[in-house]
Amino acid sequence: MKVLSGIQPTGRGHWGNYFGAIRQYIELQGNEQSFYFIADLHALTTVRDPKILRQNIQDSAIDLLALGLQPDKATLFRQSDVPEVTELTWLLMTITQMHLLEKCHAYKDKKARGLAADAGLFTYPVLMAADILIYDSNVVPVGVDQVQHIEVTRDLAQRFNSMYGDDCLVLPEAHVLDSSAKVPGTDGEKMSKSYDNTIPVFATPKKLRKIINKIKTDSTPVEDPKTPEGCAVFNLYRLFATQQQQDDLAARYRAGGMGYGEAKTTLYEAAMDYFGPAFEKRTELEQRPDDVEDILRQGAIRARQKAQSVLERVRAACGLKSQPVSL
Ligand code: ADP
Ligand code: TRP
Q1: Closest ligand 2 atom to 137 CA
Q2: CA distance 34 to 2
């Protein structure tokens, strides 16, 4: 079984990204074979500054490694290091019906907002299908927002197979990540970079303190009993705490006499304990850019070997020479 997923390098990860996605990727890394890649080609549809893109790619790799992705257990690589994927995108594009892409949400939403979409955004799901199909991936862990794209991938693989041969492409399954507990942001709404309410995983202690202090709470006076349910500070604390610790803090809310400032300090300390070791690992990795590059290179070599063999099979199936001329 092969597990594969891609992470867009569009900015620094926040608590929502970590608890909603990254932590779960890391938990899956021991499973048979797992491939995780930094979807830099996809990011080009939104990040147009080369300097920022380069920095984001590096940051994403370091973040993942610091948070526990182990290169001996999971293959970590950059999408653009495997050019075969863009060739497969073209082959798939030739069998992709327009209506399939017209209903995909990234394009549809942009159009609905009256913004001009480019062909990159329109065909984004085909590149994603190629990402998945080129490694014969069986399972693709994704957030609910990406399930539609896995459906498109399955449709394209089925259509391709019905035209060119049943065993050509492997049909993947989505493994929907558990984001049932949507991580709230500092304003209590879903944490998202689009809402400017995020708490970065790797904020400095000082910055973290400042952001946590900004979390919106109601104006119940210190001495009055408070309701933990629905309080963003409490809901965020739950991400880091054992059941016992959650019950203890809930009891302090209900008893009265504890202000939100104190609850925020409890949250701050829990987050510092939780992410402290990753923060140190990150600082250390930042000093070793060559080692990070080496991990990405080794990952890409492994990924590319698989991609080349699948692409040969696909090229031959549709009537092309299985390999291009070598130089
Ligand atoms: P953003 O909303 O900040 O742009 P992304 O869409 O880049 O975040 O998120 C990447 C993944 O992180 C999503 O597929 C989802 O699984 C997870 N995620 C993001 N925000 C949250 C959140 N607030 N709660 C739970 N999971 C989240
Ligand atoms: N589109 C995904 C996202 O925005 C990232 C992605 C690109 C991906 N290619 C993929 C995820 C292939 C899973 C499999 O989150």
Answers
A1: 14
A2: 6
